[in-house]
Amino acid sequence: MNRIPIEDEIAALRRDLHRHPELSGRETRTAALVAAELERLRLKVIRAPEKGNSLLGVLDTGRPGRTLALRADMDALPLQENACNLNGPKAVVSEIDGAAHMCGHDFHTAGMLAAARRLSAAKERLRGRLIFCFESGEEMGLGDDARALLAELKPIDAIFGVHVQAAFPCGTAVVIDGSCTAGCETFAVKVRGKSAHGAMPHLGLDPINCAAQILCGANSIISRRVNAREAAVLTVCNFHGGSTWNRIPDECRMEGSLRFFSERVGRDLHALLEQTAAGIAAADGCTAEVHWRNWCPPSVNDAALAALARAAAEKIGADVIAGEPWMASETFARYREICPEVLAFVGCANPDKGCGAPQHSDRFDADEDCLALSAALTVQFAQDFLGGA
Ligand SMILES: [Zn+2]
Known about the structure:
The chain contains eight helices and 16 strands. Strand 3, helix 3 and strand 4 form a beta-alpha-beta unit. Helix 7 packs across helix 8. The longest helix is centred in the last third of the chain and has 22 residues.
């Protein structure tokens, strides 16, 4: 297996990032560490700190050729990390209360720096340009600063990214043709009625009863209005109304998200939820407003780039397996506005080490061996895409 040995420093850096996670948009320490390493490698570092923490490192070989962007995200989640994984104590745990790298972005950042080292050392054997893109705020759907910086460097021929995946065993790589992460849109429904005594509901307009019917109606959208061959999810994750047992409130609210693998289905779901909320509210004499935010399209892997990534994974000795698309969403999708994209999944589960809890859960723990595989895959893909000098 032609895996690149990860220097102890990079493994230590990954652990350091894990111990000091920073929430979306606040990755100042992480960005400073990344910038220092890119500068040490004599890459051109491009930042716009007044606009965000994202930064780029440019490796220009000086020889004509294509331009490839490589992307890593840097932020952590607002979660309290559990010191144990599925088997027992973790090797390394967050030292920051209420923040934890429970999606593996510490691996992405460190793995990309390892790749930057290797590719800088191999510069004389490459053509074209490489742009290392470190994105801030992925978990919150921020990261527009990264894309703005990158767009300034157009033309860019492709962008490649890795996401570690607890759904797959360590040692495996999954590169899907087409949609590989779901699109997403977040909604908040505010139902307004009229307060009344709980014993005399006819004197008011009950927004809780109305919101409950909207919730049931919303769930029927997926089962009755979306083609069963299209994968889509509509989930309400909070529901609030009233504060006591004998008074109907004026208002009831709920929040949730839509997930979809086709933008057309996403737009249909958006319209159908508004129609359902307005129609049910009108029937109940209430009003319903639907507020939307964080539209993110699905990530869609370009077929030729996906084939190249699978071939690169085989070359480095990864076990290339078939896998399902991820129902979670990724701002990686938005780079499609700039150039064709491919996002490779690298397995990080290992039951022997207790690694296998899902991402975004407090017991998530990635097998550290996935760091070497992620870096090796990035290096191999970049070499194959750019070609030799
Ligand atoms: Zn993630």
